[in-house]
Write a structure and sequence with these properties.
By secondary structure, this protein is an alpha/beta fold. It has 6 helices and 8 strands. It has a single domain, classed as Rossmann fold.
Length: 146
């Protein structure tokens, strides 16, 4: 990815808990200082932000005030303009139902919040780069926990 492309990347964090938002933001800023970060606390806000920005990565909680992140991932997957955007789900309680929906939506990783780190973001960007080059990356919806 060129320097100009890196400078134009926008990461959308969809998380309703302020402390979790800040933890995710710190991980992004430490490892990806040149990425713009936008934050949504609800799915409605997330829908507005994807209209306003060219999103390169979505970090998505599952339990949000106005719905489930896994359902939103399916919605994004069905939208031709957004289906290519890599999604990493970060959740305290990944359930089998969430996992199945996330896998159907092509979510790259499902990660417990306590285990989330820069490696998951690197992997999502590598997956996206591989997809753009016609190569396969990590299998979708890998559950990562300690």
């Amino acid at each position: 990815m060129t320097k100009a492309a890196q400078d134009n990347r926008v990461c959308l964090i969809v998380e309703d808990n302020f402390i979790d938002q800040e933890n995710i933001r710190r991980i992004l800023e430490r490892s990806f200082g040149n990425i713009k970060i936008v934050v949504a606390s609800t799915l409605a806000d997330a829908r507005d932000l994807v209209k306003q920005h060219k999103i390169a990565l979505i970090l998505l909680d599952n339990n949000l005030p106005d719905g489930k992140g896994a359902n939103y991932a399916l919605e994004l997957h069905e939208n031709p303009r957004l289906a290519h955007v890599p999604i990493v789900m970060i959740s305290d309680w990944p359930s089998p139902f969430m996992f199945d929906k996330a896998q159907s939506a092509g979510v790259i990783h499902i990660v417990n919040k306590s285990d989330f780190g820069a490696r998951h973001i690197h992997s999502a960007f590598a997956h996206m780069a591989g997809r753009q080059a016609g190569m396969s990356g990590p299998q979708p919806a890998q559950l990562h926990s300690a």
